[in-house]
Design goal:
The chain has twelve helices and 19 strands. It is elongated. The relative contact order is 0.07. The protein folds into three domains: 1-90 and 115-154, Rossmann fold; 208-292, 2-Layer Sandwich (Uridine Diphospho-n-acetylenolpyruvylglucosamine Reductase, domain 3); 302-399, no CATH class. It has helices at 2-13, 32-46, 63-78, 91-103, 108-111, 134-143, 160-175, 179-208, 225-230, 233-246, 254-265, 351-358; strands at residues 21-25, 50-54, 84-86, 117-120, 123-126, 222-224, 273-276, 279-283, 287-292, 302-303, 309-311, 318-323, 330-333, 340-341, 349-350, 370-373, 376-380, 384-385, 393-398.
Length: 401
């Protein structure tokens, strides 16, 4: 409520953008409906539109983690381009987060604590109270005659964060009075080291990014494998983290990164496939490619109607046709193996050889549409035309990107 009060005051005296509020109803506590009603009354008093979002928690080992994941999924969905989401997390929350992450063996990014700002969805997340203690916030709330509402879960020792707040942290402070200051200073040092590693990852990405001009490949980010292999193992992982983050992917844990390293260190990477929550890394002869989760969609055979544009089944991209084509049976098929094509002025060749000569990676080949007319292969995605293809007709394939 204090953050809402401060922002309402700010917007009334300046030209700030209009406010709106979000309350996530987790349904975890008998008083959850009352808290939502309290938010409704408070926002009505300030004239701030409120959106109450009820969530169903996923089954996870930790209720706290499930609730957090649900909250941030709501935030990400509701944030529009240029929106700012302000959260009231404070210095005590930061301390608890640091200790939790240290106990879980977090890396530098985790041990730097919650960032003051970061991108979220189509907008940006800000934590303006992160340097202010809980006690200072409570004092300020009373001075502004605001009702202080305490979540009963904050005093429930069954929750790890509550136990840390009421048992572990007070004991640490009694033994080491400088605990808060020291831990927050540590987070600052770690954040600085993390920023240097981010700069190194950015430099390595600039040196090792593979920019492909091939129309079938240029939309996907790629890294050069020979250069990646020359880096030390820790530097490889640092680059991979930076590369995934730069493409908006969630960071995998150390175990998953090690699994990827083991795959491309074994030698041939033509069949490499590495899945994470929201992305898929695929190997080429000398590249690592980053595609959306699931990789290339599987092509589905279908008739080819006489239309200028056709969205292919299974989300396999777009076909564009131009010119005049003769009547007859037109069909889109996909590779099963052993396909041959004879182009004008050239001997009959296998599609496998054509793909190899053109540097088309193995993971893309099953998705290339093969256009058949009257049962004969006449075009390979518009890239190679058979000698018997209708001269007045042209086709181009644009993969899903």
């Amino acid at each position: 409520m204090l953050l809402l009060d401060l922002l309402a005051e700010l917007t009334s005296t300046s030209t700030c953008p209009p406010l709106r509020a979000i309350h996530v109803h987790h349904g975890l506590h008998p008083l959850a409906d009352q808290w939502a009603a309290l938010c409704v009354r408070a926002c009505a008093r300030y004239g701030v539109p409120l959106q109450v979002e009820r969530v169903v928690l996923a089954r996870q080992a930790s209720i706290e983690e499930a609730a957090r994941d649900a909250r941030y999924a709501v935030y990400e969905r509701l944030l529009g381009p240029g929106d700012l989401l302000l959260l009231a997390q404070h210095a005590d929350d930061q301390l608890e987060t640091l200790i939790f992450r240290a106990l879980r063996g977090a890396g530098l990014r985790g041990l730097a604590g919650m960032p003051r700002q970061r991108p979220l969805g189509r907008g940006h997340l800000l934590r303006p109270l992160l340097d202010v203690s809980r006690a200072e916030l409570e004092t300020a709330a009373h001075q502004r005659n605001l009702q202080w509402v305490e979540d009963p879960a904050n005093a429930d020792p069954r929750f790890a964060r509550s136990w840390l707040r009421h048992t572990a942290l007070p004991a640490l402070r009694r033994q080491w009075p400088q605990t808060d200051r020291s831990l927050l200073r540590l987070a600052g040092h770690v954040a600085e080291a993390g920023a240097l590693l981010d700069e190194l990852a950015e430099a390595d990405m600039g040196a090792l990014a593979h920019v492909d001009t091939d129309p079938w490949l240029k939309q996907w980010p790629a890294l050069q494998l020979p250069g990646l292999r020359r880096l030390s193992a820790p530097r490889q992982r640092n680059l991979l983290r930076g590369w995934l983050l730069a493409q908006g992917c969630r960071l995998p844990d150390q175990r998953h990164l090690l699994a990827l390293q083991q795959q491309f260190d074994r030698g041939s990477t033509a069949g490499l496939r590495w899945e994470i929550d929201d992305a898929c890394v695929l190997g080429g002869v000398e590249q690592l490619w980053l595609l959306p989760a699931g990789g290339m969609p599987a092509g589905q055979s279908e008739p080819l109607p006489d239309v200028a544009e056709l969205r292919l089944s299974g989300g396999n991209g777009l076909l564009r046709q131009s010119g005049e084509r003769p009547s007859g049976e037109w069909q889109i098929r996909y590779r099963t193996g052993g396909e041959l094509i004879r182009m004008a002025g050239r001997p009959t060749q296998t599609l496998k050889k054509l793909f190899q000569e053109a540097g088309i990676p193995a993971w893309l080949r099953p998705a290339v549409p093969l256009i058949h007319y009257q049962g004969e292969l006449v075009s390979v995605g518009g890239r190679w035309q058979a000698a018997n293809a209708p001269a007045s007709w042209c086709v181009h394939w644009f993969p899903a990107g």
